[in-house]
Design a protein that fits this description.
- It contains three helices and two strands, in the order H-H-E-E-H.
- It has a domain of 33 residues.
- The chain is α+β, with helices and mostly antiparallel strands.
- It starts with 6 loop residues before the first helix and ends in a 5-residue tail after the last helix.
Length: 72
């Protein structure tokens, strides 16, 4: 038996091979349900891809960018 024999069969069981398949592997292609919320900072109405539970503030994109920690 050759050292590399069977390698492809093992690899194929780990996931997709093509770049396109890799990009979409594990992702749900259905549209996300958006929820309308009011920004806690500027009171603008915005849509978010999650349902807020009311315990934490939700910000619009601009206010979130101002508040998020600076990256290196």
């Amino acid at each position: 038996m050759d050292e590399n024999e069977g390698y492809d069969s093992e690899r194929s069981s780990r996931g997709p091979k093509s770049k396109t398949a890799k990009r979409s592997f594990g992702y749900n292609k259905t549209p996300r349900e958006m929820h309308k919320v009011t920004c806690a900072d500027c009171s603008a109405e915005t849509d978010v891809p999650f349902k807020p539970n009311g315990t934490r503030p939700v910000y619009c994109r601009d206010c979130y960018q101002k508040r998020r920690p600076k990256r290196y």
